[in-house]
Structure formats: structure tokens, C-alpha cells
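User: My collaborator and I are trying to settle a disagreement about how two of our proteins should look. Neither of us wants to argue from intuition anymore, so we agreed to look at predicted structures for both before our next call. Could you fold the first one, then the second, and keep them clearly separated?

Assistant: That sounds like a sensible way to settle it. I'll keep them separate. The first protein:
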Amino acid sequence: MRKLIECVPNFSEGRDLSVIKQITDTIESCEGVKLLDVDPGQATNRTVVTFVGTPDEVIEAAFQAIKKASELIDMSKHHGAHPRFGATDVCPLVPVANISMEEVVEYAHKLAKRVGDELNIPIYSYESAALIPERKNLAYCRSGEYEGLQDKLAKPEWKPDFGPAKFNAKAGATAIGARDFLIAVNYNLNTTSTRRANALAFDVREKGRPVREGNPITGKIKKDENGNEIWQAGTLKGTKAIGWFIDEYKIAQVSMNITNIAETPLHIAFDEINSKAIERGLRITGTEIVGLVPKKTIIDAGKYFLRKQNRSLGVSEDEIIKIAVKSMGLDDLKPFVAEEKIIEFMLDAEEKTEKLVDMSCVEFANESASEAPAPGGGSVSAYVGALGAAMATMVANLSSHKAGWDDRWEEFSDWAEKGQKLKDELLHLVDEDTASFNKIMAAFGLPRGTEEEKQIRHNTIQDATKAATMVPFNTMLKAFEIFEVCKVMAEKGNPSLASDAGVGALCSRAAVMGAFLNVKINAADIEDKAFVQDLLDRGKEIEDKSAKLEKEILDMVNKIIG
């Protein structure tokens, strides 16, 4: 699965749009990244840029942007309202999809080292990438700002984490870090009262509210023995919030930044604010997400609300998103367009290519029957396997929803999730099989005018053929896993759906056998005989086990249906 990270560099220029444009053009010229937002500020003289992509490509784009900023921005002449100490002031990396914070920290250090070494800019690592505990705090790293940087760099305790301990008058210094994804969200309320919305925000935000003597609103703020104000923390960790009135919609909102979505996910914040709102005679009427969010945020929310309803989580991604939208009222003020609000979908729309799995059943059948050599048996086998997984998943979902079986919903939900995952993996293999065939054809088209070209062509063909052989083998592995779901559904699922579990088993065996035929025919052209023999031995074992499991399941099904 594709790994994605977001980069949110802040550049110390917010007034000269031509400078900003040159920097963002540099980012957009890098393949594998998508520029999402450019937000210049006149008073701050600062521009916040947001782009996203695959890790190595994001690092390259970030480096080129920092380099361009160091060429165009002269910090000795910079003035603005926002704290800053460099042309590229801060550059945080944020995990978006299929990547851990630990991995993102490694990328942050990789970027920091390259910027320090190649551009001679002092680099301080902050947030999760901090190498010194005190430097986790950005404000600490930036203390003294640009004006105090030269003196600071002369002190041993302020030696940069990367780059020279030498004052770069033009570029200043840069803080490069890794942090969690920040979600900006507004919770709509059934009130026009800013005061009540603000009170609700104080109930939940991590900072909370000051403790007062007597009247909780107008009373004197209590202080401890050291003269410090006493505060009562709110209920949601990693959040900042305030209440305000939105003239455009004529409603009050709790406006919140969730700075730690692992600790406080979007849906948990929704439920907690709604609970506190009800205590105050209010309720949330809807939710407005500002900017973009990772797909996981919405999927986790959808599954959370399905779980609260004791409903199966093993449904399609589209269904899960729909549940999230309706449960949190994401379409309260205007339609929620997933392709415009979910980062992965926005990227997919940019990189959209025609896929076999996007065809209708009729189109797929017609394409398979055409004179085109692909899709062939490998793609069809993967698709038949996906149908087998779909049948097993349907039995699990309907069994989860069966009247009188309410205490068993989670048992069947777990099986439905497994079936749904296998279905999605096999659907991916439908196009993967055709793509691997096309790579072999491309390898055959390589030049062969010289001995060196002939050798390169030969090696490329062999590598492509090996890869193409592994695709149907992976189809075998995934299709074989479906039998477990089919068998449990035949044994324990709704008896009136036993025939569907049987059809799932039939499809699964057809997928295994069909994929194995493709393994064998591709393997005939591979010169690495040890690799081939291992694959054929493992494939034969899977085929034999599949035949046995199919018979067991069909015997069981036929006994049930009489």
C-alpha cells in the first residue's frame, strides 16, 4: 500500500507573490507530490505551504523548496509579526497513510542532514524528531529568533543538530521536525450564543478554564501558593478550542484544532462535545472539516459508529464513509465531497488511470473476450477470487444482522472484515496481473543492437517474468485464505445463506486453479530453476488443499440445504 506523508513548510515571505510562486513552482515540478494549499500572510510576512506525496518524493520537493527559499529570501531584511529565524522557518513532516511516526522521523533526519550538509543551513530537529529533549518545543528552538541567532550559534549548548554551527546571514536557521496530523474542525451547534459555545469549548479543550472564586464566570481567578493561576483541565487531550458565531450560517460553533489525532480522534471529539453540549441544553447539529483529512480519520469514525450500532464493520469503504458522514453531520452545511476532502482520494483523482476493476461487468466480460491479450486468465482468476470473497463476506454481514443473533454481531463482523480485506486485495491483483504482463511486453521492446543492450534486455525480461509469475501466485495465496471464511460461514452462518457460502468456495477453488495455470505457463520462461521449482511445489500444495477444502464445504452445504 502506498505510503504518504504531508509536508507543511513555513517560508518567511508573505508579501511578494512572485517569490512565493517561484518556491511553489519548485515543489510542483517534483514528481510524486501534490501541492494542496498556499496560504500567504501580509502582517506575518509568512507563507504556509502544504503538499503531500510519497516519502522520498516529498523529501526531494522539500529540499528543493528550502534551497529555492534560501536563494530568494534575505533574512537580514525580513520583518513580520510572526516569530521566525530562517528563510524556511519550519518544515514539519506529517504521517498521512501507511507510515509510522518512527519512519517519518527518519525521513525528517534525512532531510535535515541533506539541508545542513549541502546548503550550509543550521538545522534544529523538533517535535517527534527532536534529538535533544528541550528541542521538542519549537518555541525553544526558535528562541531569540533571527536577531539572536548569531550569538546563539556561538554557544556550545546551541550547536545545531545538523549543518554548521555558523551564522548564515541570508538563510538563517531552519527547524525540521515530525509531528502528528493536525485537524481543524468546527462543530456546529443549535444555538446562536457565542458565550455558550465558548463555555462548551472550555469544557473540552485540554487547557480547560481558570478556576474562579464564587461565580464561575465573573469570579476572581484562584491562585496557588506561588501566585500562579489555577486551571481546570478540559476532557480532550491534544485539543485547542474556542467558541464563535459564524455570520455566514447564523450559528455558533466550537472551533477546534486536534493536534494529536491518535489520542483524540475526530469522532471521539464529536461524541465528547455532544455529550457536554447536552448537559448544557445544546447539541451538535453537524461537523465542518476545514481543509483535508487522511482517509483513516473518516474510516475510523465510520467503524466507530457502526460498532456503536452493533453492526458489521466488514462493509465497503464507501459504506463506512457514508456512515461517518451521516453520524457526524459532515454534510450539515454543504455536501461532503470525499474526493475533495480526503487526501488519498484527491491524489487518486489526480493520478486516475483506467482500471479493469472500474469497468462494468459487461465491459469487463467484453474486454476479456476481445482480441486484446490482456486481461487474461490471471486477471480473470483474481476477479473470480474477489467474487468468492464477496460471497463469504455477504454471508457474514447478513448473519451479523440476523434477528435474534444480536449477541453474535461482533463474531460475524470480524469474519466480514477479513473477507472484505481479501476481496479488496484480489481486486487489486486483477489490474496488477495485466500490468505485469504489459511490463513483459515492454521488456521485449527494449533495444538489442549491442551485446550490452542484449544482456540488459535479457535480464529485464527475466526480472519482469519473475514478477509476473508472482502475481498469480499471490492470487493463489489470497484465494486460498477465502476458504477459511467460507467454511466458518457454512458451519455457523445463517443456514438460509449456506448456498452462498458454497458458491464462495467454488469461486475460490476456481481462482486458485486458474491462477496456478498462469504461474506454470509464466514459469516455463524463467531460467532460475530453483525459484521455479519452489513456486511449483508450493502451488501444487495449495491446489491440493483447495480441492480438499472445497469438497468439505460443499458436503457441508449440501447437507444443510438437503
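The second protein, kept apart from the first:
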Amino acid sequence: MGASVTAIVEFAGTHQGLAYSLIVAVALSEALPVVGAFVPGDAIILGISALVATGALHLWPLIAAATLGAIIGDGVSYWLGHHYHHAIIGRWPLSQYPALVTRGEEFFQCHGGKSVFIARFTPGVRAIVPLIAGTLLMSPTRFYAMNVFSAIVWAPSHILAGAAIGASLVLLGAVAGRLAIFVVILIAFSAVTVWTTRYAVRRLPPLAAVGQDRLRAWAQTRDSWFSRQLLSVLDPTRKELPGLALLGAILIGSLWSFVGLLQDVVAGDPLVRANAAVFDFLQALRTAWIDQIMVAITELGGATVTIAVTLATLFWLAWRRDWRASVYEVGAVSAASLFTLLLKVTLHQPRPIAIYSGWDAFSFPSGHSTVNAALYCFLAIIVAWEVGLRWRFVIASTAALLVTAIAFSRIYLGVHWISDVLAGLAFGVAWATLLTIAYLRRNPAPVGAGGLCTTVALTLLIVGGIHIERQHAADMSRYAVREKTETMALAAWWQHGWSELPPRRIDLIGEIEEPMTFEWAGSRAALETELAAKGWTAPVPWTIRSTVAWLAPDVRLADLPVLPRLENGHQEALVMVYPVAGQTADARLVLRLWRSNVVLSGVGRTAVPLWIGTVDEERSTRLMSALTMVRGTTDYDGPRDILASAIGIRRVAMRGADFQQAGWDAGVLLGQASDR
């Protein structure tokens, strides 16, 4: 395997305990009443199992962990029903989900004892049937026989499917590691999108109805023009009112999100700082295989395909003489496009990578995200309005997956920041929802759900396929990875260039963390060798034993692994620890090193990489005498000075009074490798 595969194997191999424990927890929680309905267990299990083929995890322990979790989860659910009988149905939280209980009872009555086995493979009832079996006093012997048998069949079917995905990735050689991570992210991303859509379709209408009743009660106590208008809108005799209330809740939430994102961009809040971290994180995952898929997806959201879908649906609506729907659809797409353009030329936010010119050179908000969200959200709502609940979920999920995939492709390809995409999605959904509220209030005629969906699907397939065929090669070149490496003279860095590097670490969500107190010019191996000679060591790796050690009553900090940290989306390239002597508390120094985007050049020397890092002190505490917690101190000067002694104190440069804080004098240790 290539270097990238080796890297992911080493990383996943040191986190085995977490992976196996997570499989047990997910399989267990998926079988618990109510909880299991909200846990995307299948997606998580498949994603983790994909790492088996890389050697990071082992097949049989994963199967055993999934089997154990499934047996325990169903067993707990059955025990609750068998112990509390039917009274548990009336208790919280089951009392809040009568439809789920009814569906489970009907399923059990239909299939009898076999329902325990069948439900294991049936989403929607797997989390309630074991409880129902207990309340109906199913024989424990029969239940546990079916429980164990179903778990033995269910666990291998999921683990082996995930392992097969991973095995196909291994065939891709050096890119398999990054592909495996991407598959896990993609599965989790899709699962969250589908779960959110299902929650909105099934759970939000009752909540919106409660809010509607309270608002109507408030309006009834007032005698004003506004209250009378509000009562006419909230007339309980109107059949479409619950749906309109749901759309109103979505509208308010989307507008609130967009305004918050706009404020963050203008004010430069943490979300904007997270832009670079997410950008660097995703760029590190890029491979030619993933690029092929992401470029094709982004082409499906381009103007050519979007205009084709709009025109095709307009022809369908015109054929049905539904002129109102046609006008609203044109308004959804055209206004979203115009708003995006106006905001871009107003804010002048630059893109992560400058590959466009003119007005398209500006980034906020994402045009792909805004226009596609407005178009497909509008179409999905008017179609879902005239179909049953099951098809509503299918239509909403399909539209949500398509729009979010297009939006994600823009972030992955590096042409938009995450704030651009989130703002575009928020405004597009808000605008489409506002239009559909106005459209649906007048009891519109059916749009022909089946025909409209078929028209959209065929247009995407035909026009999208032709567009991808014609543009893919050129777009692959346009969206190719562009390195952001900067070159600086070694002497310039030593004199003043060091101050141009980040003064503090920025985590993945954009928060400013501890100061960067160390910069190193030269090979990482040279620093590791030099520190090892002075007593610095590599930390304990993440294994099952070291993970469980966090729960041990008398564990020393030296026997615990180091918690990882990201700097602008990058994982540490080097971590070393040093024991602190003379402390009353258990303590250690931790050096973390990340590679910067600067390469140093000098006369007569080859270019060398430049590394930036932090060194701080960690101390251990006990949480309720059950869990070891690690906390850092606010003293950064002392650990930096100890590191300086270990490398021979090359130079401590001072940033200035503006950077000083409690525990840090704004000094940065500069070091050069002797073999540079």
C-alpha cells in the first residue's frame, strides 16, 4: 500500500478501542425504544467497517462487537417491557410517540414470535418490537433465542458489507486511506441529511400545530387589525393549515440561519475563521477518484442543468395549464440568482481559490447552493403537498440529498468556503418556503406529482449526462488541486518572517486557542532525534488498553495517550511528551507540531519545510473518582523554555506587547535543524 494508506492504517490502528466500543454502543442504542429511531446505526456501522480492509480494524472483533451490542440492546428493551408490562407505554418518552407504539404492536401481532427476527432488519420498528414483546409477555426462552439468532445474522451482514466497501478501496492503492475517510464522512453526511428530513416531515408538524394553537389563543384575546388578520390565517377549519404552519417554522429557521451567517461573515466571527480549517481539512482528502465524482455532482448543479430543469418543469406545468405554479417557479430561480449576484458584488468576499473572473470571482454566497436549494425545495414542496406521508419523506429526502451533495461538492473542490454554502442553502430554502406559503394558501390545483417528478428525473439524467460528458475533462483541469505553498528565504524567516505565521492555533470550528510558541526549520526527524536524546518520548498510542486506562483508579498521566488537536484542519505531524518533575500533581509537557504552508530556501541549501507548534503542560484530575480528565495550564513560557533547553536555545523572538497574555510573554522559540 502507498504512503497515504499506511498513514490511515496507523491512525485507525491506534484508535481500535474507540472503534470497537462505538460499534457496541451504536448497535445497542439502535435497539432501544425511541432512541433507536433517531440513531443512524446502519450508516455508522458500515462506515467503520469499511476500514477493515485497510488493516486498521479487525473483522471478527467488529462482528463480535456488533453482535454483542445488538443482543444487549434488544435484551434491555425486552426486560423493560417484561418488567413494567403495559404501564411503560404510558410513561415518558414512549407516551410522546403513540404512533410508534401502535406500529410496533401491529407488527408483532402480524408476525408473532418471528417479529423479533424480522424487526432487526426493518427500519422504523426495530427499536420498539422487543419492548412490545416484553409487554405482551413473550416467553423469555423464545425471545432470547430469536434475539441471539437475529443478531448473529444481522451483525455479519452489515460488517461484511462495510468490509467489502473497504476492500474495493484497497484495490485503489495509495488513495485508499483518504477514500476510506471520505466514505465515512459521506455516509455520515447522508445519514444526517436523511434523518433531518425525516424529522422535519414527521415530527415538526405536531410541534408547529402546538405553536399555531398558542398563537391563535393569543390573537383571540386581542382586538386589532393584526389579530383579526392572524385569526383569518389561523382558521382551524382550513385543511392545509398544519402544513402551512410547518412551512412557516422552516421559513423562520432558515431566515434566522441566513441572517446569523451574514452577520458572522461581515463581523469576521469564528465561523469565518473555521472556513480555512474546513478548507484545508477537505483538501487533504482529495484524490483523483473522489474528484471525478465531486466534479460530476457540481456540474449537475451548474447553470446549464439548472436552466434545463427549470424549462422542462415549466413545459410540464404549461401543458397542465398551471400558470400560477409556473410563475412561482420562475420567481424562485430568478430571484435567487439575482440576490446571489447582488450580495456577491456588495460584499466582495474572495474565493478560497481564484479560478473565476468578473463578478464570479466573489464567493459569498454560493450561487450553486442558493439557486439549487430554491429550485428543488420549491418543486419538492408542491409535489409533496399532494402525496401521502411515505412519499413525502422519499421526495423530501431525495431533494435534500441532491441539494446538499451539490453544496458539499463546492466546498470539497475548494471554490467556496463553508460559510458561503451554508448561507446559500439557508437563503434558498427560506425563499422557496416563502413562495410556497404564498402559493399554497390559495388552494392550488394538483401539479401532477408523478409526471413532474419524472420530468425532473429525466432532465437530470439526459441533460446532466450530456453536460458532464462535454465538460468533465475541462472541469477536472479547472478544479484541480492547487498547492498554497509559499517560499521564504531562510534568512528572512530568521530575522522577521517568523512573525507572519499564525500566532495562535485555530481549531476546526474557528475558535482561537493556545499560542503558537515554537517554529522549527528543517526535518521533523531531526527534531525528534534531538528531543529523544533529552528525554522526550512518543506518547502512548491509542489502543483498547490505553482507552480503558482512562477509567482506571490509579492511572498515571504517562500511561495515557495524548488527545489530538487540529490546527486549521491539519492533524499533528509530531507529538512528543516530557515528564515534569517536582510537581505535586501528575503532569507532563506535550509538544505538538504541524507543517506550515511555508518552505524555506537559502543560498547553497535545498529548500526545507517550516513547522509550527505548541508546547504546554497537562495535568490530570479525576471526575467523580471514575474518569481521568486532562486539563492544560495557562503557563506557556515555562514549557517553551524547557523545550528551548532541550534544543540548545536557538533563539526566542518576541511578537510584541499586543500579543501578551497571562502566562505568555509573546515569545516564540525559533529552531533550525543542523542537517538542513
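Some points you might bring to the call about the second protein. The two ends are 29 Å apart (CA to CA). Confidence is low (pLDDT under 50) at residues 1-13, 169-177.
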